[in-house]
Specification:
Layout (H helix, E strand, L loop, with lengths): L1 H11 L31 H10 L7 E5 L14 E7 L7 E4 L2 E2 L4 E2 L2 H14 L1 E4 L2 E4 L1 E8 L13 E7 L2 E9 L2 E5 L5 E2 L20
Antiparallel strand pairs: 1-8, 2-3, 2-8, 3-4, 4-5, 6-7, 9-10, 10-11, 11-12
Length: 208
């Protein structure tokens, strides 16, 4: 399986003979001519448009902005999500529910969030597990806030690792819990997972 994943990676992205990934000026992988998706990596807007085109439900896009201070001029609802276009690992994501910043438990203060966004842009990225990830922070999105079928907010995140039509594993992210499950929602021994002790697996989604 690992060999096939490497072969697919090498087909889809520019790499050298040792499978080293080539990066562009924003330190994102460079797609090869065989890259199958009609949108580039980290482009949440084009990804959303494609998902809508094929009939998938997505969170409604309310606004986009390119200058952090533009957030102060927007007419925001009581609940919404702010996220960067070209980042990952949840960096720069702010969740507001009923005017409350879920990261802090305090009233959502746009001025404070703008300062944090500006700092992130100045830093150019962030550190994760000893590695600095450089993000392309030119565009930010404001989306409607979604709750899952159990009313949890923000909802758990599910990242599917596929090989063809086969599900290899699903990464379940329910902060601070991160773990991998199989197609039957059984926990797998995944080394990148982080599990508080003790931990409680989120309820299996009814749509599973």
């Amino acid at each position: 399986i690992y060999r096939k994943l490497l072969e697919r990676q090498r087909r889809w992205f520019i790499s050298d003979a040792t499978y080293g990934m080539a990066l562009n000026e924003n330190e994102h992988f460079i797609e090869s001519p065989s890259y199958p998706l009609p949108f580039p990596q980290y482009d949440k807007i084009q990804e959303k448009e494609y998902a809508q085109k094929i009939g998938l439900r997505v969170a409604k896009l309310l606004y986009t902005f390119s200058t952090p201070s533009d957030l102060l001029q927007l007419k925001l609802p009581e609940s919404f999500v702010v996220k960067p276009q070209g980042a990952g690992h949840g960096d720069g994501v702010f969740v507001c529910k009923a005017r409350t910043n879920l990261k802090t438990g305090q009233i959502f203060d746009c001025a404070t969030v703008v300062e944090q966004i500006e700092q992130m842009v100045e830093d150019g990225g962030s550190w994760h597990r000893g590695t600095f990830f450089r993000w392309n922070l030119k565009t930010w999105l404001v989306e409607e806030l979604l709750e899952d079928e159990n009313g949890d907010c923000p909802p758990s995140d599910y990242k599917f690792m596929m090989l063809g039509a086969r599900i290899l594993w699903v990464l379940v992210v329910d902060y601070p819990l991160t773990l991998a499950v199989d197609e039957n929602f059984n926990v797998l021994p995944e080394p990148i997972a982080t599990r508080p002790s003790p931990f409680k697996l989120p309820e299996k989604p009814r749509c599973w």
